[in-house]
Amino acid sequence: MAVFNENQLAYIKTKFEEVDTDKNGSISLEELTALLKTLGGGEFSARISIAQFDENKDGRLTFDEFLEFAPTVENWNLQFPVRNACSSEEDNRCLKYGCEDS
């Protein structure tokens, strides 16, 4: 799971609440599609994101699942290291450029 500072977490929570337009505590495909359309994506991107981050496979993103999704949104400029399969989190090259699976 990504680690967030207090400001990042507050920003992501605000975004989650904005996207969760029906206020049921999770983000549907339609809600995520609407968000991604504002960022240059659309339904296809939303379907891929839900498939990737929906851990409980209910077709929606909970806040915890949204926390995993948030670093992938380039326009939010959260400045997170690349999430990858590197063996050492201290390897700056790996965090900056990614690495190959060994």
End-to-end separation in angstroms reads 21 Å
Helix and strand composition category: mainly alpha
Mean pLDDT across all residues, rounded?
79
Strand content range: under 5%
CATH superfamily: EF-hand
- Specify the number of helices: 5
Fraction of residues in helix: 40-55%
Number of domains: 1
Please report the total strand number as a whole number.
Answer: 0
What is the string of SSEs from the N terminus onward?
HHHHH
- Might you state the CATH topology name? Recoverin, domain 1
Task: Outline the biggest β-sheet.
Answer: none
CATH architecture: Orthogonal Bundle
CATH class: Mainly Alpha
Q: Report the principal-axis shape.
A: globular
Ranges where pLDDT stays below 50 over 5 or more residues in a row are 80-102
C-alpha Rg, in Å?
14 Å
Layout: helices, strands, pairs:
Blueprint: H1 6-19, H2 29-38, H3 43-53, H4 63-69, H5 92-97
Helix pairs in contact: 2-3
Protein name: EF-hand domain-containing protein
GO molecular function: calcium ion binding
InterPro entries: EF-hand-dom_pair, EF_Hand_1_Ca_BS, EF_hand_dom
